[in-house]
Amino acid sequence: MHSRRPAAEANSCTRTYSLCKQAMEACTRSQGCKCADCASFAHIELPIPTTAIQNDEDAEPGQCGPALATLEARQQELTQLVAQARQQRGAGFVFSPDPVTLDADGFVPSFSPESQSRELREFWERYNFVVVCDVLSADQLVGAAAEIFQAAELGGSPPWTLEQLERINWESAYGSRYNLSKGFVGYEPPNSVCAWESRLAPALYKANALLFGRGDLLVKLDRFGMMRPTVFGGAEPRKDWQTTGEWIHWDQNPWSEPDFTRIQAVLAISEHTATSGGFHCVPGFAQSFRAWAAANEDYRIDGGDIISVPTGDPMRKHLQRIPMRAGSVCLWDSRTPHGDFPNQPHTSCDSCVALD
Predict the structure, then answer these.
(1) What is the extent of the structural domain holding 16?
(2) Which of 106, 158, 231, 270 has the fewest beta carbons under 10 Å from its own?
(3) Which residue has the higher pLDDT, 47 or 262?
């Protein structure tokens, strides 16, 4: 059984190769074919150089050429061609990193949407994220931290002793093993006073309105985040209490939503330093989002909006930690690869609200 490709693909250089246990047929026409009646066929569609195809000029469009004599040899040849095509296609994507320079105190520069709207916008356009300063007051930060500890059922505020923390069922406190590995507290959006004060903070609204260029905003509710301390006096650091390392993903599908769609945010309840654990991202990558998707069709996922950056992708080398002061909010274009980095040996319990 053969089915023809849509006419729109007739001029493409894509060829369909069908690999079977008993035979292999190399399509010789751009219309291609797919033998749907054989469950053991695996179809690989890649741009393959024309010279690599064993042409049969007498074959009708949409028909396969003669079966090759040695299946094993042709399978090996095709495997090499596929690897070359993937390498060539990926080589067409080039990302030029643009790391952010930290201020004198070791934090990413932050801006007020009231008095620094131009600088805020310029930073956003260059790096595709921006830190907004002084979103919550000192009193609001104390209240927000207490609400996070209460949500995790820790029974009070720090400091805690190692003995106290070792008695806690952490999987229950975070809500699941997955949450524990990422630092998320629970699954339900918090419905507390400080949580609503955070969502409705005037500086947060003004920054988002500035970046979207409009004031009628739709909001997805948030959840709390917390990273456990890992250092207690002279005791051996609890490295097993660190979150997952090098976690980097998108909350936007690069193949189905390649354009600017949404802004995500994280609010620092405590000070986030380069070692405390916190947000990291690849600055300036959003402009390359569509090009990356085109160059990485092999990883395509249709449906779903949580897309992990492939292991070994060169962009991982350009991850940058985003230290920020307590009370600040980091906003980022959802096309920016991001995640959180683990808390290195640290004495405090760092907390945040994910406003995404």
Answers:
(1) 7-91
(2) 106
(3) 262
CA distance 81 to 67: 18
CB atoms within 10 A of CB 288: 20
Per the omega criterion (within 30 degrees of 0), is the bond before 158 cis? no
Question: What six digits make up the tokens of 139?
Answer: 């009193």
Structural domain tally of the chain?
A: 2
- 321 forms beta bridges with 280
DSSP H stretches of helix in 36-99? 71-91
Does the model's pTM come out above 0.85?
Answer: no
Residue 224, domain CATH: 2.60.120.620
Tally of CB atoms within 10 A around 320: 21
Cα separation, 239 vs 216, whole angstroms = 44
7 CB-near residues (< 8 Å, 6+ apart): none
Is the same domain home to 114 and 82?
Answer: no
- Structure confidence by residue, pLDDT tens digits, 115-135: 999 999 999 999 999 999 999
CB atoms within 10 A of CB 10: 13
